[in-house]
Amino acid sequence: MARNLSKRTKIDRCRMGRSLLPSLRGYRRDWLPKDAAAGVLITAIAIPLSMGMAEVAGLPPIVGLYSCVLPLVAFALIGSSRRLVIALDASTAAMLAAAIAPLARGDSARYLALATTITLLVGFILILAGVGRLGLVADLLSRPVLLGYQAGLAVLVIVTQLPQLLGVDPQEGAIVGAALRTARAVGWASLPTIAVSAICLTGMVLLRRWRPSWPAPVIVVAATTLIVSTLDLADSVDVVGAVPAGLAHFRLPSVGLRDTASLFIPAAAIALIAAADTLVTARAFAARNADDVNANRDLVGLGAANVASAVSGGMTTSASAARTAVAESSGSQSQLAGVFAAAAMMLVLLFLTGPLSLVPRAALASVVLLAVVRLIEVTRLRRLWSIHRSEFGIAVVTFASVVTVGLLPAIIVAIVLSLVDTVRRGMAPAEAISAFLERDGHLYCDESQDAIGATSDPTVAMYRFSAPLFYGNAERFRTGIHHLIAARPQTSLALVDASRIPFIDATGTDIVIELEREYSKSGIDLVLVGLAGAARNTLDRDRTLEALATSTTSTSVSDVENRGAQIGDRRQARARRWESG
User: Fold this and answer.
1) End-to-end Cα, the chain, rounded Å
2) Which of 87, 299, 433, 513 is deepest in the core (most CB within 10 A)?
3) Under a CB-based contact definition with an 8 Å cutoff, are residues 517 and 511 in contact?
């Protein structure tokens, strides 16, 4: 009995091991030094970037550092991606600021409580989405939407960081007005601050060009901090100021139910952006390394990371493609790299907060500036213009929406535009009247011939429809068949190449039935060729259409003739029922 109990305990432990830390499956001991080195490098880069992203969100820089401890551990325990690094993101940081600034009304304590609340809501939404297997929801954000959104976000963040780069007072209000007011304030700019900004920007650009493997943000921030400290420029250059030492206190926000309800929609928008960014990044790096990822599990892991961030004094977190690339280049093999990074950040918070107080805010703004400039992917936008003008238009409208109406409304506008464009293309599918040639007793579609009358038999006509047959294009389908029959008066057999119709809805089914009944009166047989998948299943469930379809794209002449005979028999039976009725 004791042996059975021991065996059962081992099984339970094995199951727990499979449910937690999935990235450690097949872990090898020689990977440990690589993960440790990657973790230290992630922390070194995270210090300036996380402090800068907290500034973008309107929060104290220490909040950014708190966000780099427990969230990494939470995702490591649950997430499926081996190499994905959880960090602060410019998108979610800017959206957080846009959502809570109007509600905070200038109260810093209330601002922090609202930030914690929205982070908690984002975490719960992501966990529910993952448990409910809604990982595909993130696909609503198409690539053109993301390109336009990222470009607009970059402009938004750049405008908000310009005052820090110039040493002038921050400008409130809409993005265009804030940019104009910042331009007018250039005459009062601080020369020492501009010098620090110039050193940081120049240093990072040169290091990325000449030494791309070096952590450029860490080097330039450390160098400018040393300059400010040595030359005693703390009075001339705005610095971060006192950074509290120690770890964050665990707490829940004290925000009323009304404020929490008003934050739900912004939280859902942030969750959607975070989910899309995380899943796309996870898939990209998994494909590069032949890894397997589970989208729903990664959503739960990201949700847990945001909940952990909320209760430990942090802010909304997401995936970081840049830091994931750094970790990958340094040999990261699993989420243990994130655990090592969290441990290193704890050491920074406990023992190294003193030097952080002298970090120039201009240096952090420079790091943020170069980080978000890379979001404007000119090459991909140019390629989009060359291959899909309508999708390029969606990217431009998304960009304009971000700049003019704000981040949250822009997401809704972009998703609606993408859906409208998808429906528009479905309503205007590729269609052709093609040749259907007989060879070796079989009928084949000759796609090189789209001219009317190209078939070897003038009594056989073929119509190809390359889209889902649904309510939006069902009438177009009917019109195409009508034109085919009208152009070929000798037609006795109308074949529809349905191999490119992925599914048929109720309206499409009714249209097919109506066409068959209409042409049966003229002695024309209508046969659907090549149905498969969901479209075939729909017709199989509808006995009225069962005799109208063949199962392959290559159909024998005798099969078509037999199908025509079945149609004729069914017509006669239906006529007898009508007469008796």
Assistant:
1) 76
2) 299
3) no
Whole-angstrom distance, CA of residue 293 vs CA of residue 82: 8
Q: Token match 């997430």: residue? A: 79
| Sign of the CA dihedral running 376, 378, 384, 389 | positive
* CATH 3.30.750.24 residue spans of the chain: 429-580
**What's the Cα-to-Cα distance from 73 to each of 93, 324, 425, 515, rounded to whole Å?**
21, 15, 44, 61
pTM for the full predicted model: 0.65
CATH class (in words) of the domain with range 429-580: alpha beta
Name the burial class of residue 386, with classes exposed (0-12), middle (13-18) and buried (19+) by CB atoms within 10 angstroms of its CB: exposed
Q: How many CA atoms lie within 13 A of 70 on its CB side?
A: 20
pLDDT by residue for the chain (581 residues), tens digit each?
Answer: 445 545 444 443 444 345 677 878 778 888 888 888 888 878 877 888 888 889 889 999 999 999 999 999 999 999 988 888 898 988 789 889 989 988 988 888 999 999 999 999 999 999 999 998 887 665 666 778 878 877 887 888 788 888 888 888 776 666 777 788 888 887 788 888 999 999 999 998 998 889 877 778 888 888 998 998 888 887 788 888 878 888 888 877 778 888 889 999 999 989 988 888 788 777 767 766 667 778 889 999 999 999 999 999 999 999 877 677 767 766 778 899 999 999 999 999 998 888 888 888 888 888 878 877 877 888 888 888 887 787 888 889 888 988 888 766 777 787 787 777 777 766 665 554 544 444 444 444 444 443 333 345 667 777 878 778 877 788 888 888 888 888 878 888 787 877 778 878 778 878 888 888 888 888 888 887 777 766 667 666 665 555 565 433 334 444 444 544 554 454 454 444 444 44
CA dihedral sign of residues 206, 212, 218, 222: negative
Sorted by sequence, the CB contacts under 8 Å of residue 407 that are 6+ apart come out as: 94, 95, 98, 153, 156, 269
What is d(CA 421, CA 311) in angstroms, rounded to the nearest whole number?
Answer: 41
**Of 497, 495, 160, which Cα lies nearest the Cα of 361?**
160
